[in-house]
Amino acid sequence: MQSPLSLQVRAPDATATRTHARLSVRLREETRLEHKSVEAACGLPGAVRHLSDYSSCLLDFYGIFSPIERHIATFTECSYLGLSMQKRARVPYLQQDLRLLNVDPDSWREAPAQALPALPQFAFALGALYVLEGSTLGGQIIMSALQAQLRIPVDIPGGFFAGRGEQTGPLWNEFRDALDVYGQQYPEASADVIVGAKRTFDAIGNWFNENNNRFSS
Ligand code: HEM
Predict the structure, then answer these.
(1) Is 90 domain-assigned?
(2) Which of 35, 151, 184, 208 has the fewest CB atoms lying closer than 10 Å?
């Protein structure tokens, strides 16, 4: 693990800045296929027809986001990039929605260790954080489709899919800026960030595919 101090003092590599695309741009371009696969695997909004499907879907997100988020938070470098994991955590929203839906906490299952992405260093964890952060972007579209599709006379607890409300854009831009600073300072670590993101997308997609039979037929 790089020392926090080296993260603060190292000067940007000017050559790399000129000759390489920004890390945030590379991530978007190089994980496009993985995003498509995850979209297909989570089956949203089509697979969710009843309120029980919605709970199952949130349980699936909880099961894989929870251990990944905890793992990312062990890397102190997040705060040196100005990223507060407390502020960015998605799992509290999942927990809140599940509680409001009265889902028995005994059924809140976490993915086993072998199903999790390998994130041995901070660079890989930053790629995983990119995936979790990005999941705030599509949520509002998903939520309005779900509201229309479920046609039930109750408000669905939608804290998770609401993303960050009006703060979604600003917080995403702040995260992308932090990614690009990291990419400038550690161009040699960019490939690991992208691998971390791909591993995370794959782990999430596999987890959803494994749990697909939870949805009603
Ligand atoms: C059916 C489900 C999904 C839909 C419809 C969807 C939709 C979207 C949309 C519309 C954007 C672009 C937003 C923008 O450019 O302003 C986006 C970005 C993104 N989504 Fe999803 N998404 C889905 C599922 C997920 C999941 C489950 C994850 C991760 C766990 C994820 C991760 C990301 C990431 C990382 C980005 C950022 C791409 C970039 O770098 O610009 N998405 N999504």
Answers:
(1) yes
(2) 151
Q: Which of 23, 24, 35 to mutate to test the pocket of ligand 1 (most atoms within 8 A of CB)?
A: 35
185-206 pLDDT per residue, tens: 999 999 999 999 999 999 999 9
DSSP string, the chain: ---HHHHHHPPP-HHHHHHS--HHHHHHHHTHHHHHHHHHHHTTTTT--SHHHHHHHHHHHHHHHHHHHHHHHT-THHHHTT--HHHH--HHHHHHHHHHTT--GGG-PPPPGGGSPP--SHHHHHHHHHHHHHTTTSHHHHHHHHHHHH--SS----TTTTTTGGGHHHHHHHHHHHHHHHHHH-GGGHHHHHHHHHHHHHHHHHHHHHTGGGS--
- pLDDT at residue number 17: 47
CATH code, 198: 1.20.910.10
Among protein residues, the one with the nearest Cα to ligand 1's atom 9 is 138
pLDDT digits 0-9 by tens, 86-116? 999 999 999 999 999 999 999 999 999 999 9
Distance 3 CA to ligand 1 centre (A): 32
**pLDDT over 90 for what percent of the chain?**
73
Residue 180 counted as domain residue: yes
Task: Specify the pLDDT at position 215.
Answer: 63
Measured from the CB, is residue 38 less than 6 Å from ligand 1?
A: yes
Residue nearest to atom 39 of ligand 1 (CA): 28
